[in-house]
Amino acid sequence: MAIFGIGLHVLVALFFAIHAIRNGQQLFWLLILFSFPLLGSVVYFFAIYLPGSGWQHGARKVAKVAVKTLDPSRELREARAAFDYTPTAQNQMRLAAAQLQAGDAAEAANTYEAGLQGPFAGDLEIRFGAARANFACARSGAAVAHLQQIRQADANFRAEQVSLLLAQALAGAGRQAEAKAEFEFAVARFGSFAARAECVIWAVANGEQTLAARLRTELLPTIERWNRHTRDINQELLRRLDAAFGQIRG
């Protein structure tokens, strides 16, 4: 098919040539594209354009979700088999992560705790995993202890995540004054959407209406600007946030 006397394959080659120039690709691609418009375009598409686009990532994500939906226990089975065959620290942490993902937070906490015995007692990733798992199974006191040890060892390690989880764990342990201070610290230091959102959720649950209303005012313009993809990524947080917004007076 020709468009205004120019073959469609030439227009496609021109499109990829512009892409090559804008993205700083080597100039030999221009020679290939204009010498062999059809074949060159196919090669460029698979070699350069596709890996650099969001298509591959999206396809991998869809495939991962499909596998998880059709066989939700697959990763847990494989992780357990790998650890049984080769009981390394890496496989142990894979098993703990799979247990937590599968909803068995108590077993995950036990696996993480076992990983902290011996030579890996100082591994902050393992300790952070233990904190997450303990919090997920309502062992908030243990989660607080792990997070405080992480902060003492390295204040910059996953700083925002540690701060938010610590605030939530303090709240779960009934230490609301400390939880409020930690939430406010996270909002002041990081100023992220997640920090503000988690602070709102805590504030509503603890009768801090003034704080909740102020943060809602700050969050709404951001939410309104989000596209569908961003909303999908933050779907669970938005669900919890919407429930909190519904309880704010004024």
Outline the structure in words.
It is a single chain. The chain is mostly helical. It folds into three domains: 1-40, no CATH class; 65-186, Tetratricopeptide repeat domain (Serine Threonine Protein Phosphatase 5, Tetratricopeptide repeat); 191-250, no CATH class. It has 15 helices and two strands. It has helices at 8-22, 28-35, 37-52, 55-70, 74-85, 89-101, 105-115, 124-136, 140-153, 159-172, 176-190, 193-205, 209-225, 228-233, 235-245, and strands spanning 2-3, 6-7. Helix 8 (124-136) packs parallel to helix 10 (159-172), helix 11 packs antiparallel against helix 12 and helix 12 runs antiparallel to helix 13 (209-225). The radius of gyration is 25 Å and the shape is extended. The termini are far apart.
How would the blueprint of this fold be written?
Elements: E1 2-3, E2 6-7, H1 8-22, H2 28-35, H3 37-52, H4 55-70, H5 74-85, H6 89-101, H7 105-115, H8 124-136, H9 140-153, H10 159-172, H11 176-190, H12 193-205, H13 209-225, H14 228-233, H15 235-245
Antiparallel strand pairs: 1-2
Helix pairs in contact: 1-2, 1-3, 2-3, 5-6, 6-7, 6-8, 7-8, 8-9, 8-10, 9-10, 10-11, 11-12, 12-13, 12-15
Protein name: Tetratricopeptide repeat-containing protein
InterPro entries: TPR-like_helical_dom_sf (IPR011990), UCP030959_TPR_rpt-cont (IPR014562)
Organism: Rugamonas rubra
